[in-house]
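I hope you will forgive my troubling you with a question about protein structure. The matter concerns a single protein, recorded as an amino acid sequence and a row of backbone structure tokens. Please examine both parts with care and let me know of anything in them that strikes you as inconsistent. Thank you for your consideration; the sequence and its tokens are set out here:
***
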Amino acid sequence: IVAQDIINNVKLKCCGIKVANVSGDELNQIAATNAAQALQGRVAGVLMTQTSSKPGAEMQIRIRGQRSLNASNDPLIVLDGIPFMGQLSDINPGDIKSMDILKDASATAIYGSRASNGVVLITTRQGEEGKTKVSYEGYYALQQLPKKLETLTLPEYAVYQNLRAATIGFGAREEFKDPSLLSRGTDWQNEIFRTAPMHNHQINISGGSKSMKYSLSGGYMQQDGIVFGSDFERFSFRVNMDNDINKWLTTGLRASVARTQQTNNVDGSGAIYNALNQLPEVPARNPDGSFGMQTENMYGTYFSNPLSDLIQNENYSRNTQVYVNAFADIKLWKGLVFRTEYAANFNYSNDYKFTPSYDYEHFKQQSSASRGAGNGSNWTLKTYFTYNNTFGKHGLSAMLGHEAQENKYESLSGSRTN
């Protein structure tokens, strides 16, 4: 229950086992859409895997390895002392002060069986006593495909076709009679890949006095994918406040809102596979602006226009994450403190996918559409007494508390094919 206090008091050591710590400054040294990406390669023994190439994709975190084939192996995420039910992509990395990794006995001693896969502790920026400070952080980056795969140009493809026709005795094509007269044809990798910008901006206002400290931040992040039809966007706002009302009462608030949208026309479209297999003689677009498609060929295998699939298909996910954590500390007696804390997560999601119909000579596709919506909530109520006092050379620490938690989720989806 008092995990964050325990972590602070024992200086990130528990049961004789050290834990890893990464500061927010270290996390912000690279351009990353979420904190897990920034954490990659910085903590020994922790495996971070990119499970999808789409912008804004979640990272798979394995602190204690793959311990089960059926159950989840994801670690417990704790945000400012409270289990967090959202995704790391909902948290602006610029709001993070530090991240701590707990594993083995150091995790289970505090959180019990919920921490059997390890724990990621996230502490956000807090206000500090002093004059109001206004700061801006931002970056602009470009993303590119590091290397293209070698495929045949149109003249090389013509040479191959001529050799094939000469070998089997038929299939020669008049337009391929002199390959040197041909252009390079369509480079399908150039058609679907691009140099994609990525930029992030954040403004933070912080300050306070001895009795009240605050930190306000607002952020915007946008990332285009290196493949057409993929991007990620996030708006975020966070407020952290601490108030010493009087000598015996202290209150605090941690609240944030994040709105994300992820467009992903790549997964499931086969566009990259089609781009590597589509013939260089097929134009990306015809002179009238329509998308080019394969005509009759000797192989009997037809591939759709990958550029058409990426541009005409629609596939996006929108998500809104609201997080609130309010607490109060009441000093009842010397060394005796009563703390009550309420935290809640609210999540609203909306998914949409549409594939248009088209009918070409050798390639047909039915239109299909699907939509899904879901909302979930999670709340935690914690109340406990702590007693800390010293008697000469001896010290006494005791705790008595209670925690209640509730999770709800509901969803509705539908689809249709014409």
Summary: Residues 154-168 form the longest helix (15 residues). The two ends are 54 Å apart (CA to CA). The CA atoms of residues 354 and 396 lie 64 Å apart.
